[in-house]
What does this fold into?
Amino acid sequence: MLTLKQIQQLSADDIQQNNQVIIDQLSSDVVLINQISQYIIHSGGKRLRPLLLMLVARALDYKDQDHTKAAAIIEFIHTATLLHDDVVDESELRRGKETANNVFGNAASVLTGDFLYSRAFQMMVELNQMQIMQILADATNKIAEGEVLQLLNCNNPDITEAQYMQVIYCKTAKLFEAACDVASVLADAGDSEQKALHQYGVHLGNAFQIADDVLDYIADSETLGKNIGDDLAEGKTTLPVIYALKNAQAQDQQLIRQAIEQGHHPEMAKIIDIIKHSGAIEYAVSKAQQAAQSAIDSLDILTESEYKNALIALAHIAVERTH
It folds into this structure.
């Protein structure tokens, strides 16, 4: 199976062109916007979403270059959500570095996120395809809904698995889905291919986010790039917590409920241990693996190619981080 590095090598020319578009489009007369934008863009992210868009376009035999601009739009939308997310969550670490809000302040981070959103919409107009504008406008709105939903769900230990899946669809899977949809439009794919790749994006995004939520309990801080148990400390009821709340012993369930309701709990280390030993990690990993397999199955319609193999590998990579 291809590694992420091999996938990036396969797409090296596209990635280089995409990087150049990002650099060119980040330019602003306002020095602080340049500083924050550069800080975020060079903070060590894998840029999976733009890579996904470019891989899907190539898997559909797309020959032109607009996909690198479309991929930059996807990255700007994603980066804007990260800037806003970190302010809302009062996060101090992301990808092992201080968050922009910690370095530059909340106000500057929020406003730079607004700049990135508006620049993304300027670039959408340049693509001059109404269908792509519709996809990305809908995605941006759905992501915002997801953020509000997550805020409403905060400190609530009674969130169901269905509610959790709704949040991760809005917050994460929607942009993966949009990346696939935009690539399909650019490549003028047929209806059946568009539908299949749409499903691939949803399943891949779900697998990726569930795996991320598992890592909050099993990774070390250095690998994770943030503090272990941050989700629990922020009162987020993710899939491992939902499972543990149903399956741990009664007194342990009570401790978990307190942690969710209160946020930073004095017995956090013990609570994380309870979640680990409840079978929650295995359950969540199996759900991530099911989503990844559904993503792979969606690709059956595509002609065999190195780009199809790369998309299959991406689904495996999404979940193998939990091993």
Summary: The beta strands are 93-94, 97-98. The longest strand covers residues 93-94.
